[in-house]
Amino acid sequence: MAPLTFEDARLIIGDHWGIYIPQRFCDGMDASDAALIGVDWADVQVCQAGPDHHWYWESWQQILDSAQIADSQGNLWGLYQNGDLFEYPIGCDIPEW
Q1: What is the Cα–Cα distance from 17 to 23, expressed in whole angstroms?
Q2: SS (H, E, C) 18-68
Q3: What is the pLDDT along the chain (97 residues), one digit of tens a residue?
Q4: Distances in Å between the alpha carbon of 75 and those of 5, 78, 91?
Q5: In what order do the strands lie in the sheet with 76-82?
């Protein structure tokens, strides 16, 4: 099987959600979900509070920088946002847009 590339990235949340993408991503998460993907529960709670929270964007950046989501084949996926929110294979080159 060929190594995964950024072309294998998967759309998670469309950019039509705008400033609510972080809140939408974190909705429904609990502390065990946060631990499972390697993000701080406090950052998730801030994002769940919505874009009016003072630390919303800082917490979201921490989640983007820290999240590692394992799939059933053992691949690790990170989060990348450029308008839309994507799940991308960790270790691949991310294109400059």
Answers
A1: 10
A2: HHHHHHHHHCCCCHHHHHHHCCCHHHHHHHHHCCCCCCHHHHHHHHHHHCC
A3: 667 888 889 999 999 999 999 999 999 999 999 999 999 999 999 999 999 999 999 999 999 999 999 999 889 999 999 999 999 999 888 777 6
A4: 12, 10, 10
A5: 10-13, 84-89, 76-82, 69-70
